[in-house]
Amino acid sequence: MNLLHSSGVVMPTDPKQTPYLLGGKCSNCGTVVFPKMPVCPKCRRNGTVEDIEIGRKGRLFSHTIARFAPKGFKAPFFQIFVDLPEGPRIFSLVGAECPVEDGVLEDGMEMRLVVESLADTPENKDTLTYKYVPAAKSGKPRHA
User: Fold this and answer.
1) In the sheet that 77-83 helps form, which strands lie side by side, from edge to edge?
2) What is the mean pLDDT of the chain?
3) Is 116 contained in some domain?
4) Phi-psi bin for 103: left (phi > 0), alpha (psi -120 to 50), beta?
5) Between the chain's N and C termini, which has fewer beta carbons within 10 Å?
6) The total number of structural domains that make up the chain
7) 18 DSSP assignment
8) What tens digit of pLDDT does each residue of 47-86 get?
């Protein structure tokens, strides 16, 4: 298996720890970014961005269902933006355990990070990436 974002997703070897995203925090102004970059996008200082663990959880900012897929993906699938408590808003796909149906996701709901195949297709099944899924069951009926 290959990790798509090998410098941005960390898979701890300790089974008690969960995966996280490797972001950057500026020691000058405190801005947190993902992915990490050498220059702070806010204060534009070089060399002040330090590693920080982020993204284990987040809040769904917005979502849409993609009804057409590029090569290597199967439609429909969710595309989302997640607000991380550490600061940045990031783009993500939604994990396979979440059925792709209207009403399954609600903006503002808590999400948690998972690492899984980029897509269930021959081209992408062996490529791992980060995705998000609802943190808790909403109580709504889910169809298989």
Assistant:
1) 2-3, 127-134, 110-117, 57-66, 77-83, 89-93
2) 91
3) yes
4) left
5) C
6) 1
7) P
8) 999 999 999 999 999 999 999 999 999 999 999 999 999 9
Q: Which residues in the chain belong to E strands, given as ranges? A: 2-3, 9-10, 20-26, 32-33, 49-54, 57-66, 77-83, 89-93, 110-117, 127-134
pLDDT digits (tens, 9 = 90+) for 111-126: 999 999 999 999 998 9
Taking the whole predicted model, whether its pTM rises above 0.85 is answered as yes
Q: Classify residue 79: in a domain, yes or no.
A: yes
Q: What sign for the dihedral angle of Cα 109, 70, 9, 2? A: positive
Report the C-alpha gap between 54 and 143 in whole angstroms. 32
The token pair that represents 105 in the structure block: 């996701």
Q: Which domain holds residue 86?
A: 56-134
Q: What does the alpha-carbon distance between residue 61 and residue 55 come to, in Å, rounded to a whole number?
A: 14
Domain assignment present for residue 24? The answer is no
Q: Which CATH number belongs to the domain containing residue 126 in this structure?
A: 2.40.50
